[in-house]
Amino acid sequence: MMISNIVSKKEWSVYELTSYLKKKVEMDVLLKNIYLKGEVIKPSVSGEHLYFELKDLEYDAKIKCVFFWFDKSVEIKHGSKVLVKGNVIFYEKEGIIELKVSEITDIGLGELFVKLKQLEEKLRQEGLFDSKYKKEIPRYPKKVGIVTSKNGAAIRDILNTIYTRFENIQVYIYSCSVQGQNAPYEICEGIEYFNTAEPVEVIIVGRGGGAFEDLMAFNSEMVVRKIFESKIPVISAVGHERDYVLSDFVADMRAITPTNAGEMVVSFQKQALEKLSEYQKRMKSAMEKTFNTVKEKVGILQYKLYQNSPANTVAKRAQDIDLYCHKLSFAISRKLHEAHRNLKNFEKRLADLNPESRLLVARTNFDNCSRRLGEAFKKIFQQKEFAYKVNLEKLIALNPLNVLKRGYSITLHNSKILTTISQVSNGDEIVTQLSDGIIKSKVFFKQEGAESDV
Amino acid sequence: MCELQKDIKFEDAMKRLEEIVKSLEDGNLSLEEAIKLYEEGIRLTKVCNDILRSVEKRVVLIEKLNGEYIQDDITNDIYGGLGQKE
């Protein structure tokens, strides 16, 4: 595109402008391989590349920088004062100028820090941070002033903290800028306002967290001096716990966060409320205890009184008498019972010794003996009778007459029974007796020896 | 009881209350003394409660506009316009 073409045109497109600027910038030899000194602001690493801004403290001027494939061994921090080498480039798409860095050298602490340290030292020397000037923060403030931005997160945190803990408190918020060039003036105005126009019991000055740079207003000499001069105690509540600003040193109390500042102004009141209800409870229970102790004592006395009353004595005696009666009747009944038992015993023994019964026993014995005698006699008699009968049978069987009946006979000579032949001689008279009579014969023959054939 | 005047300091009242609670709890008091102390204690809790609750919740926003201070009561709308941006 020829420049003459552009100049002759009435309307440019954005692209026409950006590409023109790009050419302008990149063709300028003065913008090639320049060395730039400044302070690193908000460095951030994305992948292999380092992005940051370089700031000129004196004129509050900044330029964006990018360092592609930077050497990670170089540690670049926020606030570092560095010397960079690079080319100025123009991004058409964004419409911005950047420094494309090729070298970076850390040249020590940023001037910002140095200045801050110097200021801190100066104010310390003056005694602004001395503890002897610290005012006491009221424990039970009813009216609190807050100097901060109405748009910051801090005010919400503080109000939330206060009102979720304790309702009965008035909060006055002086809205001001908390960063940027006007911030120190506005903060001072806020502190002044509460010291004159709207007296409060305690002032909270602060803001939420942010980059080191964003907190600079609270490092300004003006604000530090204003806090020091305040007649009303000031609590400094800036950023997070790790952030330290000069207003923290000069304030009468430092809150680690805005939330913490809220806690500081109401925690005692909240505790006091809790304590009050606890005290009430404890007093009540202590009183109850005291009453109970007294009641117990009265009860004991009442009991003793009753114990020693005449009516009770009479009743006691009556009771004693009753008791003795019982004991007596019990003793008597026991005696009676014992006697009765003895009597029974004797009766039994006596019954055992009765002659009638002994007679009965003797009679039974006699009867037994008599029966046994009879039986024994009868047995003997039967035995004898049997023996007799046997003998009789035997006798009957041995009767000679009976033998004669069977054919046998007895021969007699001279009334002597012949048993041998030699007793007779021929011619002797012999008598033969048969069963039913006798025969007289004469011996005419005799033969010894064998039986006759007859 | 002279201590129970209206201008008693809150912290003194709390201190006295604590003493009262302790001596009541010790229990070495006569009934009359105990009742007296108890009454004083109850009155003190009332005083302290009154002091703590003497003020009602109120939130006021002050802004400087065109060189003038404007006070705006935002008690019922605390979070309506606060901490929204940034």
TrEMBL record, chain A:
Record keywords: Cytoplasm, Exonuclease, Hydrolase, Nuclease
Subcellular location: Cytoplasm
Cellular component terms per the entry's GO annotation: cytoplasm; exodeoxyribonuclease VII complex
Domain OB-fold nucleic acid binding: 12-104
Lineage top rank: taxon: Bacteria
Enzyme class: hydrolase
Pfam families referenced in this protein's UniProt entry, alphabetically: Exonuc_VII_L, tRNA_anti_2
Family: Belongs to the XseA family.
Gene Ontology biological process terms from the UniProt entry: DNA catabolic process
Protein task: Bidirectionally degrades single-stranded DNA into large acid-insoluble oligonucleotides, which are then degraded further into small acid-soluble oligonucleotides.
Lineage of origin: Bacteria, Bacillati, Bacillota, Bacillota incertae sedis, Caldicellulosiruptorales
Documented EC number(s): 3.1.11.6
Catalysis: reaction(s): Exonucleolytic cleavage in either 5'- to 3'- or 3'- to 5'-direction to yield nucleoside 5'-phosphates
The Exonuclease VII large subunit C-terminal domain, residue ranges: 128-441
InterPro entries on file: Exonuc_VII_L, Exonuc_VII_lsu_C, OB-fold_nuc-bd_dom
Protein name (record): Exodeoxyribonuclease 7 large subunit
HAMAP family, per the entry: Exonuc_7_L
UniProtKB/TrEMBL annotation, chain B:
Sorted UniProt keywords: Cytoplasm, Exonuclease, Hydrolase, Nuclease
Nuclease among keywords: yes
Keyword presence, Hydrolase: yes
GO BP, sorted A to Z: DNA catabolic process
Any one cellular-component term (Gene Ontology): exodeoxyribonuclease VII complex
Protein localization: Cytoplasm
Major localization listed first in the record, in broad terms: cytoplasm
Class of this enzyme: hydrolase
The organism's place on the tree of life at top rank: Bacteria
Gene Ontology terms for molecular function: exodeoxyribonuclease VII activity
Reactions the enzyme catalyzes: Exonucleolytic cleavage in either 5'- to 3'- or 3'- to 5'-direction to yield nucleoside 5'-phosphates
EC numbers on record: 3.1.11.6
Function: Bidirectionally degrades single-stranded DNA into large acid-insoluble oligonucleotides, which are then degraded further into small acid-soluble oligonucleotides.
Family: Belongs to the XseB family.
HAMAP family cross-referenced by the UniProt entry: Exonuc_7_S
Record note on quaternary structure: Heterooligomer composed of large and small subunits.
Protein's name in the database: Exodeoxyribonuclease 7 small subunit
Gene name tied to this protein: xseB
